[in-house]
Amino acid sequence: MKRILFIFSAILLFTTVSCVDNYKTKTAKDKNGYSYEYVVNDPVNTRIYTLDNGLKVYMAVNTDEPRIQTYIAVKAGSKNDPRETTGLAHYFEHMMFKGT
Question: Which residue has the higher pLDDT, 98 or 49?
Fold first, then answer.
């Protein structure tokens, strides 16, 4: 069993490392004049807008399904807590995502 687990882990590690591609981004403007970045050869044509406050918005249009879906990625966590205010990331998580 340990041998199978080791082989599976090695295959998983190899495929993860080999799947890392170097991608190239370019800059363009939309029809309203807003600048955005995009990754060359992206199959879903995702646009990456950067707001004035530094927040990045990733937008991909899917005309097959009439709905909107959002994700929020926050560069915050316990490793990013300032020494003088430990627990700040956990508090931020509750305020942003749980409303408590």
Answer: 49
